[in-house]
Amino acid sequence: MIDRIDHFVITVQSLEKTCAFYERVLGFKRIDSAGPTAMTFGKQKINVHEVGRTFDPKALAPTSGAADFCLITRMPVEEMRAHLESCGVPIELGPIERDGAEGKMISLYFRDPDSNLVEVSRYLDLN
Questions:
Q1: Topology of domain 7-126, per CATH?
Q2: What is the reported pTM?
Q3: How confident is the chain (127 residues) per 10-residue block, as mean pLDDT?
Q4: Which end of the chain lies in a sparser environment, N or C, as judged by fewer CB atoms within 10 Å?
């Protein structure tokens, strides 16, 4: 019935700070339109709502720092780790093996400027 995720929304304290982080650290592209600002990557996007400036309809209680999500990379995990460290992003956990939607993967965990937990993973079958 469902094929994939198109987008999800995160609520943040600072639109500028958050978008700059994702552009610099993960190579996302910022899109500003009449609706919410979005950050695109691959065939997906994250819509970004600023606290107090959300768009309807929205979650019942949009909260900054409540997101926890996993992104998939084709980059070797050690290269991703080195890249994150070169960007000054502390690794909270990893590399560690996890179970993803399509099998075993190796993950790194870190936090964005709002303390959302971001997991970046690479499937083992790509190694």
A1: 2,3-Dihydroxybiphenyl 1,2-Dioxygenase; domain 1 (3.10.180)
A2: 0.94
A3: 91 97 98 92 95 87 94 96 98 97 96 97 84
A4: N
Active site (catalytic) residues: 119
Determine the 3-state secondary structure of 4 from DSSP.
Answer: coil
Neighbours of 121 (CB within 10 A): 23
Provide the pairing of β-strand 37-41 with 29-31: antiparallel
Gyration radius from the chain CA atoms: 15
* CB contact at 8 A, 70 and 121: yes
Cα 91–Cα 94–Cα 78 angle in degrees, nearest 5: 85
- E-state strands within 14-116: 29-31, 37-41, 44-50, 68-72, 93-100, 103-111
Token output for 10: 């995160």
